[in-house]
Amino acid sequence: MKIHEYQAKEILRSYGVPVPKGKIASTVKEAEQAAQEIGLPVVVKAQIHAGGRGKGGGVKFAPTAKDVSQYASDILGMTLITHQTGPEGRLVKKVWIEAASNIKHEYYAGIVLDRASSKVTFMVSTEGGMEIEKVAEETPEKIMKVGVDASVGLQAFQAREMAFSLGLTGTAFKNAVTFFLALYDAYMGTDASLFEINPLVVTEEGDVLALDAKADFDNNALYRQKNIVPLRDLDEEEPLEIEAGKSGLNYIKLDGNIGCMVNGAGLAMGTMDIIKLTGGEPANFLDVGGSASAETVEQGFRIILSDKNVKAVLINIFGGIVRCDRVANGVIQAIKNINTKVPIVVRLQGTNAEEGKKLLEESGMNIIAATELKDSAEKVVATLGQTVSK
């Protein structure tokens, strides 16, 4: 689960991580009042679930009250396009009014779970304000990584090593050590999957502040994070993904035109890969799960076809726990109820596969059967641009 910058900063503040003073605003008037309470100069920051807001015009320095009014008016209601939003952009409904900081230097700090080492990994870099992916690709030596043993937590000597690697001294060094220890506590205490501070700044006075904050949380742990669940902003999420979640389906919208229905994340990845290798573009990742019912399959079908970009559908099911005849019944029922005209390719393998194929053949519907994975991808790509009737 993702949250907004201002929400992440409130969480960090509760764990003792220093952040600039700020207030959220949904209207120009609220922005003006917030700036007056905080004290000028301030920064007006668009709140969307995406990075690169500054480059897209969503972050503005406002030294005067007139500037606050103008920038709040410009940003609120704008469709902000960044490298993470895609060309469609995101509608800005809130702005964060934050006290301007007397910045001396910008750095980067982030915490993630490194699944390769099975350790929480703390990263710092002198290249603050830049995309960390670009730094990792072009100058990986500028990123220091510290693997943390979760049984003992981040140790003071590790925090000091990170502060040394940034070249900090004196007051800034001491404040950075305190900052890193508190940031780790926030990460572990909230069951986060990511905390990213970019930039982490040192001010002329030696203060160390989280000038920006990005936080993602493990959905599987939200049951014990009752204070974080209400922070979810459904307006920032894909509507079809929300609908899929209600039905217990794992769905992620992509930019292609071939809908994919599979059971199992590994099979989903393989299916999308083979579609790409065959010259097609997957429109989604949809995993109906290992115990899918006919109703679940039908709901998955509806979600896939709700995407107007979908021009063909590939159903690729391996019957392990789920029976292929159950999937076939769901497909038949979905086609009857939805009355779709897009081509449908179905590959069934595993438990009751022959029974499932027989049901599809006897349905009288124009369904294209496939046997091998490559065969199914080639057939669905070949159907693009075609329409079929029942």
Automatic annotation (TrEMBL):
The protein's Enzyme Commission number: 6.2.1.5
Biological role: Succinyl-CoA synthetase functions in the citric acid cycle (TCA), coupling the hydrolysis of succinyl-CoA to the synthesis of either ATP or GTP and thus represents the only step of substrate-level phosphorylation in the TCA. The beta subunit provides nucleotide specificity of the enzyme and binds the substrate succinate, while the binding sites for coenzyme A and phosphate are found in the alpha subunit.
Family statement: Belongs to the succinate/malate CoA ligase beta subunit family.
SUPFAM superfamilies: Glutathione synthetase ATP-binding domain-like, Succinyl-CoA synthetase domains
Protein known as: Succinate--CoA ligase [ADP-forming] subunit beta
Keywords, sorted A to Z: ATP-binding, Ligase, Magnesium, Metal-binding, Nucleotide-binding, Tricarboxylic acid cycle
HAMAP family given in the database record: Succ_CoA_beta
Record note on quaternary structure: Heterotetramer of two alpha and two beta subunits.
Binding positions for Mg(2+) per the UniProt entry: 198, 212
Annotated binding of substrate, by residue: 263, 320-322
